[in-house]
Amino acid sequence: MSIDFDGIKEGQRRMWASGDYPDIARTIVSAAEMVIERAQPAAGMSLLDVATGSGNVAIGAAAAGADVTGLDITPTLLEAASERARKAGVDVRFVEGDAEALPFEDASFDRVTSCFGVMFAPRQLLAASELVRVARPGARIVFAAWTPEGLNGRMFRTIGAHMPPPPPELKSPVMWGDEDHVRSLFADSGAQLTFERQAVTFEHDSPEDWFQYNERVLGPTIMAKAALEPQGRWAPLRSELVELYTEGNEADDGGFRARAEYLLGVAEMPD
């Protein structure tokens, strides 16, 4: 049976349009800053930010002087990104498009970035090949992706265990956080790959409050609740997520402070 990729992507549009992704994007700004630091955008450079969301990387790269294009599959996020760019006083071209079929010519960009974005494209090898295709000789591709063993990787795995399984041909998005897997995605590109482990620190009033915040604003949690609650199956997942955040909590003052590990990857394209 063939996989309905168009249906998968339409589901992703609904998921990321639900809740308030621009609000939760504020909690991962530090990762966007790391992506920008490794990309080293500057005046005269062209940069494409793939799955830009509400524009964390695109806006920061434009502020550094680069000629920036931000692409995303979700129109409502592009609207939010455009408004943020306007308020920041920077010029970014925002384009609706698919990470698996980038609407750009070969060798169009000096830098290609993605911060917790391209990892959600269902056909990972195809998405990686598109990043490579639009990168110029000598270009740099920089991405951030949650690791499977980190807090958010475990969160996605916990949610997935309660939902209908995806087709076995599809890899988990957090495999973009596994170095060996990423090497396989770029194996035919000739790129020189380097990796480092970094982490975002989430803070809130308590693990329960952090869960409730995610329940209101984070698309995957919202969609899981919408699917499971009518069947009376939400409570077990809710308990497991609160337990996950409680286990990851490093605060000793009654609050919540937890590190969510991600893989920061850089692919240097050959000249």
Keywords:
271 residues, 11 helices, 7 strands, seven-stranded mixed β-sheet, alpha/beta
Report on this model:
The chain has 271 residues and is α/β, with parallel strands linked by helices. It has one domain (5-201, 259-268): Vaccinia Virus protein VP39 (Rossmann fold, 3-Layer(aba) Sandwich). The protein has 11 helices and 7 strands. It has helices spanning 5-17, 21-25, 29-39, 56-63, 75-88, 124-134, 151-160, 179-185, 207-217, 219-228, 234-248; strands at 46-50, 67-72, 92-96, 109-115, 135-146, 192-204, 256-268. It has a 7-stranded mixed beta sheet, sandwiched between helices. Helix 3 crosses helix 4.
Helix content: 40-55%
**Largest sheet at a glance?**
7 strands, mixed
The CATH H-level homologous superfamily: Vaccinia Virus protein VP39
CATH topology: Rossmann fold
Q: What is the general shape?
A: globular
Element-level helix/strand string: HHHEHEHEEHEHHEHHHE
Oligomer: single chain
Low-confidence stretches are none
Largest sheet, order of strands side by side? 3-2-1-4-5-7-6
Judged by helices, strands and strand pairing, the structural class is: alpha/beta
Q: Please report the distance between the alpha carbons of the first and last residues.
A: 41 Å
- How many structurally independent domains? 1
Radius of gyration: 18 Å
- Tell me the fraction of residues in β-strands, as a range: 15-25%
**Secondary structure tally, helices:** 11
